[in-house]
Structures are given as C-alpha cells and as structure tokens.
Amino acid sequence: MSRIMDIIEEFKKPCPCGRVHETAVKDVHIGSGIIKDTGRILKENNFSSDLLLVADKNTLKAADGIIEALDGFNVSFHIYDNIRVADMKHVDELRELIKNRDISVISVGTGSVNDPCRLACALENKKLCIFATAPSMDGFASDTSPIVKEGFKSSYQAKSPEVIIGDTKTLASSPSYLKSAGFGDMMAKYVGLVDWKVSSLLTGEYYCERVAGLTRNAVDTLLSMACRVTADDEETAGQIFESLLMTGIAMSFTKNSRPASGSEHIIAHLIECLQLPEGIIPNYHGEDVGVCTLEMLKFYNSLAAFESVKGVTESPDWDKIFAVYGNMAEDVKKLNFPENIVDSVNPDDITAGWQEIRDIIHSVPSYDAVRDAMIKAGCKITVSDIEKSQDYFDLCVKYSPYMRKRLTLLRLRDMIKA
Hints:
- This protein has helices at 4-10, 38-44, 57-62, 66-69, 88-98, 111-124, 168-172, 176-203, 209-223, 234-254, 263-275, 285-304, 318-325, 329-336, 347-352, 354-362, 367-376, 390-399; strands at 27-31, 50-56, 74-80, 104-109, 128-132, 144-149, 152-157, 163-167, 310-311, 416-417.
- By secondary structure, the chain is an alpha/beta fold.
- The chain has 2 domains: 4-174, Rossmann fold (3-Layer(aba) Sandwich), CATH 3.40.50; 178-207 and 258-417, Dehydroquinate synthase-like, alpha domain (Up-down Bundle), CATH 1.20.1090.
- Strand 4 (104-109), helix 6 and strand 5 (128-132) form a beta-alpha-beta unit.
- It starts with a helix and ends with a strand.
- 51% of the residues are buried.
- The mean pLDDT is 95.
C-alpha cells in the first residue's frame, strides 16, 4: 500500500483552515509487477463481480496482463481507438452502459480515458478504479473532470476513484514523451499556487496553507528529479507517480482544482477549444500546459520587477472578447454576467498589497529555474515546440481569463498599471 494512504489519514486531523479534508480515495497501490494483483485488490475493495473495463487500444496494450488479472470477474469492455479529447458524448456513452446495473468500472489509461469515467461514475454512483499506464498527468486522484461539451471545455465536479493502481513496470516503460508531459503538468502547480494565494489576498477566497503545502512538496520533489524523468527506471517512475497523485489528492481535499492549476491551464483549454472545430487534434495535455507555465512564469516575474503599481478598474472590450469566442460566447457571458470575478477586487487593494503580491510571485522557482528543469526532463518549452504561431498563442493568452470564473494574476493584468 502506498504512503499516499498515510497522507490521507494525516489530513483527517483538524486543520487550521477550519475545513475537514476528505477524499473518496480508499486504496492506493504502487509497486513492481502488481498488475497481476488487480483482481484481488478490487475484490478486497468490494467491487462488483460485473466490471466494465474502459481503455483505448494504446492504453490496453500498455497494460499487458490486465485482462488475465481480472479472472473471476464478469468483464465487459468499452475500448476506444485513440481517445485524445474527453467529450461529454463519451460520458453519455458510459452512463448508458452502467446505469441501473450492479456494476463497477476500471479505467485503464490516463487523462482522456479517466475523465469521462470519473464523471459517469459520479453521476451513476458506481465504484471506480484507475489503473495508470503512464505518469503523464496529475489527475488520477482528482475529483474533477475537464470535459468538452458542445465545443466548450469546462471542469465538472466528478469523483475521485476509490482505488488507484500504478504498476511501476508499466509506468517506467511508458513513452518518454508522456513522462515529459507529466513533468510539464506538474510544473504548472507553481503558477496555480501563486494564483490561488493572490486571489485569497485580494478577494478572501478560501485558501489552505496545509493543502497548498502538499502540492508544493510534491512539485518540489519532482523538480529535483528532472534529469531522471525520462529514464526507464521503476523507482523513479514510482516516485513521479506518487508526486502526481499528491496533487490530485490535494484537489479532492479542496473540492476544486485550485491546488493544481491556474492561468496556464485556462490558456491551454482555450487553445484546445479554438482548434477542435478546425479538426486539430490537441497535443498531450502536459505539453501545452508546460509551455503555458513557462510563459506565465516569465510574465509574472516581469510583473514582480515593478516596485510599485497602481490598481485600476478593469474595462474589457466585451464585443471583441465574444467575437474571439464565437460559438462559445454564450458560455463566456454566463461566466461573466451579471457578476464578474473581478467585481470583488478593490483596485486600491492591488496598490496597497503589491509588495505582498511580489513576495507571492517570488515564493516559487523562477522562469529560468523551471525552464532549465523542463529541458532536463525532455519537455517542450517553446510556443513553436507545440506547433502554435506566436500571434495565435498571444491571442489565447489575452482572452483566456474570461473562460473561467476564477481570479488569476493574468486576469488582473489590465488592472495593474506600473
């Protein structure tokens, strides 16, 4: 059993933030060759004898031996060719397969396979196990699912899996580009933690130092392992997977994605939403997010260079914003009217709190430090690396803050005058 369970038990103790930190995760197993124990682990956790296995052809191949390990279960299968974008139609398909049945689900794969399962199982109240096939993203333990619905990507409240299994042999043998993507996704936490604390400072949004510390420790650990990320090494793969799980657990503790994502994820989501109608298949999540992370760290560091600023009232050009979003404009209107996320920000508080905001920015590693680590980890680091033009990328940076009702330092850009 993973030490993750010890952390979950520790967080059940009273917290200074005043909230009770709970997660639906009941059992975590990380070890070498444990794919053979999958059936036993599910039985110990009282999974139904009827089991739906969800995967795509690539992840099922990566989990060689998983079917044999489920001997004794009545297994049905839902196998995608190659699912790269989690869409609400996938959620609806799964719900049809599991509703009104005494059945549990095992999701074999990573984000795009896991996310529809997480939401479908939440809506139909079914047990879920995730068998990870690559350390490529941080959402294994999360209780939210980023899903595209009618072209617009939103994070839906879903459920954490009751059981998580990571066979270090499987994880270590996964493609190096997936490991690098996982590293890029983890580096994003530095931006997310800055955004969360700045929002708490300016709006009083709930913030837990203890949960933030859980994420920070996980990402700091991974940062120190940068040169080992792509190695075919089981011990390293297990440590990376554990770090990824910790940020997902942190999200489930707060019941939102604040401990793990900020402006960088929102930019990546807009890139995806604008290109999907053009038939452009997205990059791996951590690739886009990693590049967006570097761009935000560079921008935030440039803001921190100002010794003082003046806060002003935001005055966005909504006609231009809605034009950029096109068919998604109605979704954006709902997120910004009648109440706007910056309505609760007093410009004078930006002016008065600037030194503290600078300290928050400087509390995480710099752009240069994270960039150097990402190079060591084999990550994509430039806009051209993710095959986007600079003009297109800049447009997504500029207009992304309006697609979430979430305060970030990027959203405050037009309220900060040097």
